[in-house]
Prior knowledge:
This protein has about 190 residues and is an alpha+beta fold. It is about 25% helix and about 35% strand. The chain contains four helices and twelve strands; from the N terminus they run αβββββαββαββββαβ. The protein has helices at about 1-15, 60-65, 100-115, 170-185; strands at about 30, 35, 35-40, 45-50, 55, 75-80, 85-90, 120-125, 135-140, 145-155, 160-170, 185-190. The strands form three sheets. Strands 5-6-7-11-10-9-8 form a seven-stranded antiparallel beta sheet, with helices on both faces. Strand 3 (about 35-40) and strand 4 (about 45-50) form a beta hairpin. It is globular and about 65 Å long.
Amino acid sequence: MIRQVDEEILAIKKSIEDNSLASLKEGYYISGKLETFTKALYFNDSVSIYTPSSFIDMPDEIKEIKYPTNFRPEIIKTNLAGDINLSLSLLEEGKDADIETLLSDLRSLLSKAHKGIRFLEAKKLNKEGFVEINCFDFILPGIDEKIYHMMGMGKTDRQIIQVIFNCMEPDANAWKKAVIDIFENIELVRK
Length: 191
């Protein structure tokens, strides 16, 4: 009897962790815990983006270490351990900027700058009523471990929003569906 109950509990837990019914509104089970998301406003309340509720603003002293150039993202949200990050930037759009070309150029630049980079897949997220995001994911060798990244760009009214997520490679599969959901639900706020 106890064994049967344990097997039923394990089956339920497995189905919950599968995230097939998860959403940003309900939350995702990631690495054994429920991760909830908050719809937050950024860039003078012009863009709405779901952000993990447990994430905090990365402290400035950590930003300077993790992102040592002056080209660091404007907003960097991180978990308390600092090993999972979601960053956001609003870039000025050049005349006739083409997102697909920008991302292609960025992929080319990344492949030249990082010998061990492994690109995974590229996709266009085009959910009605939301910003169309072109994105790709890749894995870079880190100091101790490989780092998974998903990078996306989309046009707002007159600017380009850039969203980057990164975590340790072993956590990538647990986070990927939630991250795609975040990217797919970026919304312009009309005033």
